[in-house]
């Protein structure tokens, strides 16, 4: 009699544990698309930014010049019109820094063995190893010394696009209830608008 009660108790406990395990983490449906099945222009944004250091120290590379007449002054409030990461597009942001430089979109294979990243926006001229004084051109290859994402620092990158512009460092609160992002690098003028 005692063994039947014990067996019934154990089976009941296992059943409850099984139901709990089946329900864990299924509060919302999740979609996953690996980078091989994702359009080229979406790999960086959706998959490649998973390892991105969205917040930064605020330190800037040596030789980077502060913008003399930026469209958005340091301390001003702006709206973000880019989706480098989840919750960024349409967020309100504060300008932390404004710098005149050449900015690049790049493609590369991370040094840590991660999936290839295509059209990552952005790295600046001063974050490249020995780039020379003149802007590089689309198609050029160079080593990057920035660590915006895991496996980026030291990677050989291909330049996808080049633009001479003012770049900004911003602070913002993501709209997807993520944590406050501070000193996010980099945004271009056309990715921001006045409030």
UniProtKB/TrEMBL annotation:
InterPro entries hit by this protein: DUF1541 (IPR011438)
UniProt-annotated stretches for the region Disordered: 29-64
UniProt signal peptide: 1-24
Gene3D superfamilies tied to this protein: Domain of unknown function DUF1541 (2.30.30.1210)
Source species, domain of life: Bacteria
Keywords of this entry: Signal
Pfam family for this entry, one: DUF1541
Domain DUF1541 residues, every copy: 74-125, 139-189
Protein name as it appears in the record: YdhK family protein
Species assigned in the record: Metaplanococcus flavidus
């Amino acid at each position: 009699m005692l063994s039947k009660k014990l067996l019934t108790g154990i089976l009941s406990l296992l059943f409850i544990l099984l139901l709990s395990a089946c329900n864990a983490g299924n509060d919302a449906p999740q979609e996953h698309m690996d980078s091989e099945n994702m359009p080229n222009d979406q790999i960086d944004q959706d998959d490649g930014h998973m390892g991105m250091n969205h917040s930064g120290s605020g330190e800037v590379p040596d030789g980077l010049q502060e913008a003399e007449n930026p469209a958005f002054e340091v301390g001003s409030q702006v709206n973000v019109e880019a989706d480098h990461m989840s919750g960024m597009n349409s967020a309100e942001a504060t300008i932390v820094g404004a710098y005149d430089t050449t900015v690049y979109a790049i493609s590369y294979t991370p040094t840590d063995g991660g999936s290839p990243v295509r059209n990552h926006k952005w790295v600046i001229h001063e974050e490249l190893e020995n780039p020379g004084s003149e802007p590089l051109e689309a198609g050029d290859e160079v080593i990057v010394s920035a660590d915006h994402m895991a496996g980026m620092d030291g990677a050989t990158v291909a330049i996808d696009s080049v633009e001479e512009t003012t770049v900004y460092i911003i602070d913002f609160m993501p709209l997807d209830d993520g944590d406050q992002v501070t000193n996010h690098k980099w945004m271009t003028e056309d990715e921001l608008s006045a409030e």
